[in-house]
Each structure stands twice: as structure tokens, then as C-alpha cells.
Amino acid sequence: MRLLHTSDWHLGRSFHRVNLLSAQAAFVDHLVETVRAEGVDAVLVAGDVYDRAVPPLAAVELFDEALHRLADLGVPTVMISGNHDSARRLGVGAGLIGRAGVHLRTDPAGCGTPVVLADAHGEVAFYGLPYLEPALVKDVLGVERAGHAAVLGAAMDRVRADLAARPAGTRSVVLAHAFVTGGEASDSERDITVGGVASVPAAVFDGVDYVALGHLHGCQTLTGRIRYSGSPLAYSFSEARHRKSMWLVDLGPGGEVSAERTDCPVPRPLARVRGRLADLLADPGLERHEQAWVEATLTDPVRPREPMAALTARFPHVLTLVLDPERPPEDASVSYGRRLRDRTDQEILEGFVAHVRGGAGPDEHESALLGGALDAVRAEAARTEAPR
């Protein structure tokens, strides 16, 4: 049986003020074409369909279109809710939608009830484990202490119990939305830490043939049977080096797993550039980034005037500007108090400016502004302390 594993669509999300709806629509086109061209038998969507619990109307319309197109292909789809989704909203109409072959699994109580599909080699049981918020689902799953490992372990116990009652040779696939130990995070996933522990061990999934994970945005292989597909689009500059893709998974007659990646369309590449403004504007090696979405980190000791305007002239799609001035090394053996000893208030302020600028102190105009600010503070202090 050939499976297409994807996750973390985050429909409705933007990228640093850039609306990504057209790029997300292009991904849906690509998804449908991949299902058709690669002879896919089932589509797996491992959570975070939407970017927030109450998504914008345009995102809902795109999701509705995706459901209709997948149903029209006659290829079953199994989909779970993620931590960004509202499980209750996403699951509305799940029974009716399921009749069209799109199986939404958003209720934690149904973890042990699979979608059963068959091929020439027999049945495959697909278990959808939606994102399990420990405090909200511990009672449903009969767990005494709230924790990610505990609730996911209880859900998998239900999966293994159901699987054990099925005919010998029944193959199994689990969809889950979780942070599994060994996965590499990026800046665009929402923190799901509870009590300081967010990750669960991969061993919690023992006993099933394939685990289709969602939540982490980088495509990753934890074991031969446990994989993250990653998000189809980049949602932070920390993903600049990601290759966005989906997994084409072939599940053999005995539960054997082979997988290959199929790339997703890239609306615009990402680039992170770093250096002094003049160097970034002149470096011929950065020509390849001129049409990319750019995050620029400036290391100039003194903030240049209107740096964003200057950067945009060369990189018209620059989106973020980070200031990280170069600083000379400091003598760690000298305490802060010793460095300030015998200095006037004016000298302390000017020294602070020099510190944050990497050694470049204030000019004559800036020193005058600092002096005026000190005089105003002293005058106000004298006014409030004067006897009445």
C-alpha cells in the first residue's frame, strides 16, 4: 500500500507579513497531482491543518477545496488535529465527511478505533492520535498525572489492544502530533512544554509498522518506521536550510517500510545574510539572494541611517532586520563596579553607548543630548526633593 505522509499545513499563516495563501493553494495543487501521478492509496495528514483555532475564512475555503479534491480522487484520507487546530471545530461533520473517504480523527477517546483500509495483501489499520494536551485529556485516557509521555502512552496502549484483537497479519499505521525525542525543532513551532518536559520517547510507538508524525517543521527520519514529514512551506527563517517535502511510503505485505521524499513547490527561497551594511550591499557573492526573502543581520558598530531602505534597494524582498553590533572582547576579570569607578554620570552614559556600539562612542551632538537628559533628570529630582 502506498501512503503519502504530510503535515503542518498551517493554512492561514503568513510569513513576516507576507500572505501565503496563494503558496498554500499551490501546495494543495501539488498534493492532489502527487496523489494522482504516484498511485497513492491513502493520504495521511498529521495535524496542524490550520494555523490557529479560529482560522480566517479564506483558509477555511482552501481546506474545503482540498477536501473536495481529495474525495473526488477516490483516495482515502486520514487526518488528525494538531496543537494549532481547534479539535472540536475541525471535527465538525466528521461522520458525514468520512462517508466521502476523508476520515477526520480529532477526538482523543477514539484513539483505539482505526480507519481500516485494504489492499491485495490484507487489511491496514490506521489509528489517528490527535494532539493530546495532557491536562485536558488525562481523564479521558485514564491517566493520573498529566504529562505528554503518559497520555501518549495511554493512547498507544489502546492502539495495541485493538490491534491485538485483529486478525494476525493486520498491518498498522499511527498518525500522531507530538514532539518525539531526537527530533530537531525550528523557531516556528508553538511550544508544547508541560512541566518542563515536551518530548516523548520513540519507544512509545513500539508495536506498529509506521508512524506518521506532525508538529516539527523539518522533514526527519527518527527510525526507519518513525518519520516527520515537516511543513510543506517554510514558516520561519530558521527553516532556510530545510528541503520542504512529503514522504511517499510503501508499506509491504509483511509491514516492511520503504520511503522516499517528494519535494514541495517553493514560492520563494529564504536567505540569511550577515555583515556590515556596506559589505552586504557590495558583496557579489550575495547576488544569488537578491530575489529571496531575506533576513539581514547588521554588525555595524553604529546603526546606519535608514538601513532597511538601503537593503531593499538590493534585496527587494528583505523582510526582517536584526542589529548585532560587533563588540571588542571585554576583560572578564574586571568587575562592572571597577569599570565604573571614578566616572561621572556623563562618562557612564557615554561608556554605555560605546559598549553597545562595539567601541564607537557618541558624537558631539549625541553627547549634548545625553547631557541635556541628565540635566533634566537632576532638575526633576531636585524639584521633588525640595521641602514644601
UniProtKB/TrEMBL annotation:
Q: Does the keyword Transmembrane helix apply?
A: no
* Quaternary assembly: Heterodimer of SbcC and SbcD.
Q: What is this protein called?
A: Nuclease SbcCD subunit D
Give the domain of life: Bacteria
Q: Name one GO molecular function term.
A: endonuclease activity
Q: Which family does it belong to?
A: Belongs to the SbcD family.
Task performed by this protein: SbcCD cleaves DNA hairpin structures. These structures can inhibit DNA replication and are intermediates in certain DNA recombination reactions. The complex acts as a 3'->5' double strand exonuclease that can open hairpins. It also has a 5' single-strand endonuclease activity.
- In which organism is this protein found? Streptomyces carminius
- Kindly give the InterPro entries that the UniProt entry links to this protein: Calcineurin-like_PHP, DNA_Repair-Maintenance_Comp, Metallo-depent_PP-like, Mre11_N, SbcD, SbcD_C
Domain called Calcineurin-like phosphoesterase: residue spans: 1-218
